[in-house]
Amino acid sequence: MQGSRCIRELHGLLFRTQGVQIASQRICSNMTISSEDYTRRELAETLKNLPEQFSIDSVAKCAEESNPSITTLFDKVDPNRLLKLLENARTERRPLFVAAPMVRYSKLPFRLLLRHFNVHAIYTPMMIAREFHRSPYARNAEYSSCKLEATGVPIIAQFGASGADDLSLAVDKMEPFVSAFGINCGCPIRDQNQAGIGAALLNKPETIVDMVRTLKERNPSIVIDVKIRLQPDLSKTYDLVRRLSDAGVDIITVHGRTKAERNSVIPNYDAIRTIREIVPSSIYVIANGDCFTLADAHCIVSRTGADGVMSARGLLANPALFAGYDRTPWKAVEIFCAYASFYGGVFRHLQFILAEMTLGLLTKQERSELRLTTSWTDLILWLNERFILRSPTDPDFATAEYDNYRR
Known about the structure:
Layout: H1 2-11, H2 25-28, H3 40-45, H4 56-64, H5 70-73, H6 81-91, E1 96-99, H7 108-114, E2 121-123, E3 127-128, H8 129-134, H9 136-142, H10 148-151, E4 155-160, H11 164-174, E5 180-185, H12 190-194, H13 205-218, E6 224-230, H14 234-247, E7 251-258, H15 269-278, E8 284-288, H16 294-304, E9 308-311, H17 313-317, H18 330-343, H19 347-357, H20 364-371, H21 376-386
Parallel strand pairs: 1-2, 1-9, 2-4, 3-4, 4-5, 5-6, 6-7, 7-8, 8-9
Helix pairs in contact: 1-21, 7-18, 11-13, 13-14, 14-15, 19-20
């Protein structure tokens, strides 16, 4: 079968795990996919080659050499795009849907997939600011992009930093490529907290305020988000958001649990509502915690009065949840496999994403077998032997939802 042969050629690539390297141009030349909000018509009308992947350092090298090819690598991002979307959403009385920063998983293939399913803003994984500005390897491993991200859904680069100096240097490296910057003050992971980043910063509110103020003094037009968790003493949380407002923050994202609370604890949406009431209307508030369906998103907005809703685990299990799907449609699997084959990534991370998002599509035994595959080639061949995994050149690519995907 021609479609089967094409998908094997496309996905049978052993891609490199370094994020800055791309697949062979012989395969790439046949790789086409829609770049904006997914519809069948758009997919058919906008078939064109995916743009080249680039790293920050590759662009910087082109600039140093006065190489005109730099314009083929990326389009400079509109720094006001995210705030415009938030303003429009508020005017239209609808929430902004946001994909949370997920360590290991919010890389280029997954970010591009989310663009097709009504996600309005997407975070990078949390990146360690000190390592990011010091090490080319860290930059290349943590971040790569393509032209699609410059013109579509805004990308927010989130950093973990213990002080303004490292954060400022990291932001300088990323500024041309993203719409906004996030400061992570909510990560509960012990190693990160011991390094003085993440939720550990909640005990040093003056440090958080100094980071925001320093970035704003260096560049008043930069868009800054601070992502926090609640503190056991809510008065400290309320005092922090007041101080952030005075420092010039643009967005405050609130996870409705404390650092010590597990995911089984129901988020405190009332506290998020209080934060929304405390901070000026010029500052946008995003609510985070337990968003697994579109109905959840609207319920959270109703309870908190927030300007937007963020999801992490929900989107990992169902990247199409903000588009109203109760579980992942098969077309999302095809789109993700296409992007992952073209742009690459760390195999175990891509494998984990597929295992999570196919919960409602594959049986428990099938998902166990998927987890036993040992390479991207092995995984794609395994899928193709059992399911109809269409190529982007197939006219029926990305049309199947819950039927007609099994062999």
